[in-house]
């Protein structure tokens, strides 16, 4: 039996809509974007700000407006008392999923009663690989890697790793494009049905600069031009050897997310009803060259830790960094695909790096509540060969 005194539980889980690159959120600073979702998460949770023991934020490009420990800056902007500390971490694409893990671990250890795991990335304002001195995108992301690392592990661009996955699992261009189309179809259907109760609308601007309220993921397409999709050239390889295109890969996006956690005992003292508990929190290392296949061992680790099987899962949230990642995972586990990204994934709604992990967790929990499901699995690939995975049990 778990230690119910220190057992970490989720009290609220929210996210912003995801904006397209240079879209509706292009004029919103990332620290302000994160501050807004922190305030919304606290309001939904019922936890007073002064009770929060730490704000742990995932953010990949910690430079410019996302530098100077964005967790601390956003906490102050959100109106949290100055006594509430903050820390920012970078586990690349799994950053905010791991931020939630770290918050849960601190509570389980008895160090904190309440904490927030969160994340943000405004890729319109802070591009990947931003140079701190020049203030612009100035290098490829591999320029500063130690040559001894590259001699042992010739790490390619992630797109090339995605291509190698297609080669190994014999995934066709048609299969990848069909998966991408289905991601948009599911995401659009979920939006029309109004199922995304985890989304907190935010202020945005349209293409002319006019203010409006963004209440949906901006990158989701209601209609897919199949001919245009088929005509798109592969990102790196030739049309004869490549299958990975911009259309079957995740979108560059802007967004933020936040999960409020507390111990069972502390939540009970405040009369708060937990939404979910953790059955598994894992991080896995994998081949740095293939680099995106870590979702496979991470899933095995999480299922073993939870003592469950894939058949037990009621909702699976697999980050669609590339369609090849999702489809190789499907080949390995043969899940019920109706339970895999039922409301679409990053190919449709986007992938704001450090903001995605906690957002997918919020989305998954909302989906479990919507379907009356009990167990949910979230898994994300990470650059240079890692992956994060979480299994939640929704509490009635």
Automatic annotation (TrEMBL):
SUPFAM superfamilies: Thiolase-like. Residues 9-264 form the Thiolase N-terminal domain. Keywords: Acyltransferase, Transferase. Residues 272-394 form the Thiolase C-terminal domain. InterPro entries: Thiolase (IPR002155), Thiolase-like (IPR016039), Thiolase_C (IPR020617), Thiolase_CS (IPR020613), Thiolase_N (IPR020616). Belongs to the thiolase-like superfamily. Thiolase family. NCBIfam families: AcCoA-C-Actrans. This is 3-oxoadipyl-CoA/3-oxo-5,6-dehydrosuberyl-CoA thiolase.
